[in-house]
Specification:
- The chain has a single domain (about 10-95), classed as Alpha-Beta Plaits (2-Layer Sandwich).
- The protein has helices at about 20-35, 65-70, 75-85, and strands spanning about 5-15, 45-50, 55-60, 90-95.
- Strands 2-3-1-4 form a four-stranded antiparallel β-sheet.
- The mean pLDDT is about 95.
- The chain is α+β, with helices and mostly antiparallel strands.
Amino acid sequence: MKKEEPCYTIGIWKVKPGKVEEFIAAWKEFAKWTLKTQPDALKGTLLQDPEDHHYFISLGPWKDSKSIKKWSHLPTFVGFVVKASQLCEDIKPFTMQLVARITNPLD
């Protein structure tokens, strides 16, 4: 049986004016909850566009896609999506599979 490759959750967020700090705080709280309660979540990262501070990308590696599906149906997940919808003009969520990884040969 072939082992499933890690999957990644990716979110592209456009935060409403005046809501950036509130969004960052809400995302951090949600990410901490996720890592504390979901053993197959490996880490969470939030990136901000330095040119336009309203744009963010979140990403997190997971053990497998089944874990992501289970997590996305939990009440706390749904609650975060509702809160984020109030703070954001646009949200684009994705689940991605690893298809290639290139590392520095000097490492």
